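We emphasize that the prediction below concerns an isolated chain of 199 residues; any contacts that depend on oligomerization or on bound cofactors are therefore not represented. The input was used exactly as deposited, without trimming of termini.
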Amino acid sequence: MSQQGKKDIRREMKLVLANLDKRWQAAAYGEVCRRALSIIQGEREEPITDVLAWIPNFAGEVDLAGVIAETLKTRRVFLPRVEEDGVMSFIQAGTDWASQLERGPRNVTQPKAGSGADLRDVECGRIAVLVPGLAFDLTGARLGRGGGYYDRFLARHADSNVLTIGICWSVQIVPRVPTDPHDVRVQWLCHERDATRVF
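Result of the prediction step, given as a token string:
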């Protein structure tokens, strides 16, 4: 599928997400959070020590506030921050993380500079990365919003001890996501109906 195919899926999925019923989202949200936490807590042989989450910024995007709050009880949580040079880093969240936010590039909400330790300066064990996307398919292929931040970040950590979990609504699962060589697949798909290890 061409770049035009990616544009078509992005346009269609943004429309779908913008028109999700708010009451349905409120009901389905708890299921997504429960399933995501189950994956994080269920890794027994190689326990997850650190979780990289995100702050919702776009219409229909899954809100991970519940996952963040619950995870902070037992693990470290890091939230994405995009610097002016376009590099995405992750900043450690504290219990007061919601009061430590500002608007960054593309008007995206992110942690304030210096509000917590940078992931690059912290010794981590096994990391779970909760990965957003506009669309996913059942092979773990993901279509983001076009900035490439997560693909670049995950490519830099491809050989490290990282577990990737695509977080979405079930309506975001499509038959086939067009991919390029630099696109990184997720290992898990997690939505309100199911959580599936895809590879």
